[in-house]
Specification:
This protein is 34% helix and 25% strand. The protein is α/β, with parallel strands linked by helices. The longest helix has 18 residues.
Length: 542
C-alpha cells in the first residue's frame, strides 16, 4: 500500500469524546492523517471490513471525509458507508454501525462547540456496538500517535458524495446513503407516530424545535414535519451550515434563546426543544418551564412503560456521576437497578450491551436508551412528544406530578471557562489533597458527610477509571461536585455541580439559584475558586 512519511504530533490524546481541536490545528500538515491512521491501527484488523463515516457538516467536514476515504482505501478497508454529503448525526452513525454490523465508524464533530475556520473540529471512533471507543482503545490511539512515522493513503480526485450511489476507490466499496432514512425507520419502531400525529392535528399537542443551523435540521424536518405533520415553521434554523450561522450549537437556555422566547410567550407551544451540532444532545422546555436534563431523564424513566418501544418495562437506569440523583429515586421506587458512571457516554456502553440498563443520561443535555450506543437528541424529543400525547398533560403538570411523587432535586451547574490550565489543575489538586479531611467539617452550617475523588469499576468488564471528579456530600441530601471538562479546546473549564433534594410539597416550585444560593457560596469557598482563578462568578450557569 502507498506509504507516506510523517512526523508525530504529541497532543493527540482524545478527551471525553474524541479529539477536539481548533480547525487551525487540524490543518497542520498530516495532522488529521496521522490521527486517522492511528484510529485504524487501534481498531484492529480493518482489512476487508465495513466502516461507517460521516459528520455534523461543520467547517472541514467535507475535506476530512475525502481524506479519510483515501486513508481507508490505503489500509485495505473493504467498504465505507458514508452519509450523503459526508453528513451523519452522531446517533444516526451509531445506528448505521449497528444495523450494518460494521466493524466501527468514524464520526466528525466537535459536538456543541462552535464551527468555522476559527472554531473547532473533532473526530472520534466508535466500535462495532455503535458506541464511543472505550478508554483502552482511545489510549491505544494516543500511544500510537506518539510514535507514528507513516500512514497509508491512495491518491485520487475527490469522490462524489452528493449522489446516492455505490462506487469503488481501488478495491474499497463506497456506499453513499441517505443520512436520515435508517434512523427515521428506527424511531418509528419506538414511538407511537399515529397517536402523536393525531394530537398534533387536533391542536392538543404542538412543538417547536431549534436545530441550531446544525445536523438535526434534516432529521427534525423528516420526523416532525414530513412524518408527524407539524407545520414547517416548527423547525427553527433547520439548514445545517458549516459555521452554524456564526451561532453556538449548544442547546442551553442561552444559545437556544429564540426557542426559549417562544416557550415563555403567552401562546407557547406545548413542547419546545433543541439539539446540538451533531444531534446527540437535547434541551427540553415546557410552556414557561425549563426541564433540566437530570429531571428529563428521571421523568422518561418513570414513565417509560407509557412509551411504545418501552412498554414492556426497562431493565435499569444509569446516570453520569455529576447528574442529579433524581433518576436514582425513580429506580428505588420502581425497584430497578441504578448505576453511577463517570462522565462520558462510553461508560454506558457495557451496561447497555449487557442488558443491565435500558435508559441512561447525563446532566450535559444527553439522554438515550439501548436503541443506539450514543445519546440521542431527537429520541428525547420523541419521548416527550409520546408522553405528552399519551398523558394529555402539559410539561409543567408532568413535572409537578413527578416532583410530588419522588421529590425534587434542585440542581445547577456553574462553569468557569477558559481558565489558565495550571491554575485549574492546582485547584483540583488542592481539593483532592484535602478530601480526606473534609468529612465532619462544616461550611456555613452545611456539615460534610462524605468526600472522595470518584472512581469507577465497570461491573461488566472490571475496567477501572480513577479520579473522575471530587464529590462532596452534605447533611440534608445536598451535594457539590467538581471536575474539569474533557471537551474544551481553550485552556481549562472548571465545572461545579450543586444540588439539594427537597420533598416538602410547598417547596417544590422555587427558583433553583435561590434555593441553592448558600451551597453555591460554599462551593466557591471550599475550593477557593476565586483564589485560584481570580473569578468572582461562573461564566455559564445552567
Ligand atoms: C461529551 C460526552 C458526554 C459528556 C460531555 C461533557 O458530550 O459524550 O458524555 O457528558 O461531553 O463532557 P465534559 O464535561 O468533559 O465537557 P458531547 O455532546 O460534547 O459529545
Amino acid at each position: 500500500m502507498p506509504k507516506i512519511s510523517t512526523t508525530a504530533y504529541l497532543d493527540q490524546r482524545p478527551g471525553t469524546s474524541g479529539l477536539r481541536k481548533k480547525v487551525a490545528e487540524f490543518k497542520q500538515p498530516h495532522y488529521l492523517e496521522n490521527f486517522v491512521q492511528c484510529i485504524l491501527d487501534a481498531a484492529g484488523d480493518v482489512a476487508g471490513k465495513t466502516l461507517v463515516l460521516g459528520g455534523d457538516g461543520r467547517y472541514l467536514n467535507a475535506h476530512a471525509v475525502q481524506v479519510i476515504l483515501r486513508i481507508c482505501a490505503g489500509n485495505g478497508v473493504g467498504r465505507v458507508i458514508v452519509g450523503r454529503g459526508g453528513l451523519l448525526s452522531t446517533p444516526a452513525a451509531s445506528h448505521l454501525i449497528r444495523v450494518n454490523q460494521a466493524h466501527g465508524g468514524i464520526i466528525l464533530s466537535a459536538s456543541h462547540n462552535p464551527g468555522g475556520p476559527d472554531a473547532d473540529f473533532g473526530i472520534k471512533y466508535n466500535t462495532a456496538n455503535g458506541g464511543p471507543a472505550p478508554e483502552s482503545v482511545t489510549e491505544d490511539i494516543y500511544a500510537r500517535s506518539q510514535r507514528i512515522d507513516a500512514y497509508h493513503c491512495v491518491e485520487t480526485d475527490d469522490i462524489d458524495l452528493d449522489t446516492l450511489a455505490t462506487s469503488h476507490l481501488d478495491r474499497m466499496v463506497i456506499e453513499v446513503v441517505d443520512p436520515v432514512d435508517a434512523y427515521a425507520d428506527l424511531l418509528k419502531t419506538l414511538f407511537d407516530f399515529d397517536l402523536i400525529r393525531s394530537k398534533l392535528a387536533d391542536g392538543s399537542l404542538s412543538v417547536v424545535f431549534d436545530a441550531m443551523n446544525a445536523i438535526t435540521g434534516p432529521y427534525a424536518t423528516r420526523l416532525l414535519v414530513d412524518e408527524l405533520g407539524a407545520p414547517k415553521d416548527a423547525v427553527l434554523r433547520g439548514t445545517p451550515l458549516p459555521d452554524f450561522g456564526g451561532a453556538h450549537p449548544d442547546p442551553n437556555l442561552v444559545h437556544a434563546a429564540d426557542m426559549v422566547a417562544r416557550m415563555t410567550a403567552a401562546d407557547a407551544p406545548v413542547l419546545g426543544a433543541a439539539s446540538d451540532g451533531d444531534g446527540d444532545r437535547n434541551l427540553i422546555h415546557g410552556a414557561g418551564l425549563y426541564v433540566t436534563p437530570s429531571d428529563s431523564l428521571a421523568v422518561i424513566a418513570a414513565n417509560a412503560t407509557l412509551i411504545k418501544g418501552y412498554s414492556a418495562g426497562i431493565a435499569g437506569v444509569a446516570r453520569s456521576m455529576p447528574t442529579s440523583r433524581a433518576v436514582d429515586r425513580v429506580a428505588k421506587a420502581l425497584g430497578l437497578p441504578a448505576f453511577e458512571t463517570p462522565t462520558g457516554w462510553k461508560f454506558f456502553s457495557n451496561l447497555l450491551d449487557d442488558g443491565r440498563i435500558t435508559v441512561c443520561g447525563e446532566e450535559s443535555f444527553g439522554t438515550g436508551s439501548n436503541h443506539v450506543r450514543e445519546k440521542d437528541g431527537l429520541w428525547a424529543v420523541m419521548c416527550w412528544l409520546n408522553l405528552l400525547a399519551v398523558r394529555g398533560d402539559s410539561v409543567r403538570d408532568i413535572l409537578i406530578d413527578h416532583w410530588q411523587t419522588y421529590g425534587r432535586d434542585y440542581y445547577t451547574r456553574h462553569d468557569f471557562e477558559a481558565l489558565d490550565s495550571d491554575a485549574a489543575n492546582r485547584l483540583m489538586q488542592e481539593l483532592e489533597s484535602k478530601v480526606d479531611t473534609l468529612v465532619g467539617s462544616t461550611w456555613s452550617g452545611h456539615r460534610v458527610l462524605h468526600a472522595d475523588n470518584f472512581a469507577y469499576t465497570d461491573p461488566v468488564d472490571g475496567s477501572e477509571s480513577a479520579r473522575q471528579g471530587i464529590r462532596v456530600s452534605f447533611e440534608g441530601d445536598a451535594r457539590i461536585v467538581y471536575r474539569l471538562s474533557g471537551t474544551g479546546t481553550a485552556g481549562a473549564t472548571l465545572r461545579v455541580y450543586i444540588e439539594r433534594a427537597e420533598s416538602h410539597p410547598e417547596r417544590l416550585l422555587l427558583d433553583p439559584q435561590q434555593v441553592l444560593a448558600d451551597l453555591i457560596a460554599v462551593a466557591g469557598d471550599l475550593a477557593d475558586i476565586r483564589g485560584f482563578t481570580g473569578r468572582e462568578r461562573a461564566d455559564v450557569i445552567t
